[in-house]
């Protein structure tokens, strides 16, 4: 801070326009600055949801069971790049990518293997998948169905956030309009059939990883969330039928106090915007719940042991900011996929935080701090102003299609890189306190045989399936053309043993493919 005062009090906050009754409230009450539940972690700890997936479904299943045996309370599935963009593993464009940055899922056979011996009615499942989110959700639903588990018993989250793919990440398939239709189809379908499921995780994480500031992360994320809400309202859905199942996903970055304030500001601003624009009757429609992941972009290949310290501070910021679930990155992720040992250290970081630090005894222990409340105000006001600019453009979709969002993120990323190069920002082990030598950590690698074996598995599945694939895809094609909710047809395709690629290619016939505009 640049302030010269030694002490700050309530009068100083009042001078900034801070009103405790309006801006703070109590935990569990509007505007939810202090948290979405009154008791917070005194009532229930956050879900320790370690993100994992690599190689084949069988290998990923082993990692999930390893993590569950060591105290993970929720699973988060990482899919490989071909799956993320709706390609089967034998697609020629998938060569060299199968199983590399996540698990390869082509069919119901893979999905059954992925969750073998995992109690789907007792373990919360999160799936980081966007463009083909409806298909991966359908795969999970059919696995549960075949095990005799009622869909109403399933809990978890599907990311299903396509807008940030156009702006910051790139794993899109269809153009924005049909993609938004698919998102809304999931809202509508799950509201009736899978009521405990979080139908979207609106993600600021990847926006921040692409180089945005904290204010931009909040603004662009909430603007995207408002676009999804409007699409559902335009469909005719009642706001309270879907808004309580919207969740968010934020980055836990390096600036400790700024990050705590960011999470509080995001909750407060979302509650205000939802009440102003939609006046829902259910308080849960106003209460922003979020998953946090420590910042992958801050991890360094140099001196990777330092990443354990970075992750611990970032995780503490997420908890003091009131997250509902948390993933802690592993020390070696700047080098390769995490080893079992590294994943265990990342999980133990959360457990030490939960059971040894003492911070869980308080709902919002930093509330009333001049610095925290000032930063919360600054982020809230800055994000609201940016959202108003986006509104003037016609909303988040229009702002993305015009290139505005991409340009803003790019400018911030450029300035951050300049700060590193000019040593205005210090990264220990990279541009200061540098050691000679290479990292000595053991590195995990994916053998080339993984792709060969996965393709062979897919070929065997196709040759032995008994479902009426052609008929199911024909029904899906008709539904895409006539405007019906696509989820029932997609679920039936999965029941009939259609692959992910076959379903996506059928939808492409009607929807086409999105081409990047090169902003």
Summarize this structure briefly.
With 519 residues, the protein is α/β, with parallel strands linked by helices. It has helices at 10-15, 20-24, 57-69, 81-84, 108-114, 133-146, 163-169, 176-193, 205-209, 214-235, 239-242, 256-278, 306-320, 340-355, 370-393, 396-401, 404-421, 449-464, 469-482, 487-495, 500-511; strands at 47-52, 74-78, 124-128, 156-158, 197-198, 200-203, 246-252, 290-294, 325-327. Strand 8, helix 13 (306-320) and strand 9 (325-327) form a beta-alpha-beta unit.
CA gyration radius, whole angstroms? 23 Å
The fraction of residues in strands falls at 5-15%
- The largest beta-sheet arranges its strands as 5-4-3-2-1-9-8-7-6
Pairing-aware structural class of the strands and helices?
alpha/beta
Counting DSSP H or I runs of 4 or more residues, the number of helices is 21
Helix content: 40-55%
Regarding quaternary structure, what we see is single chain
Shape summary: globular
Biggest sheet statistics = 9 strands, parallel
Mean pLDDT across every amino acid position: 96
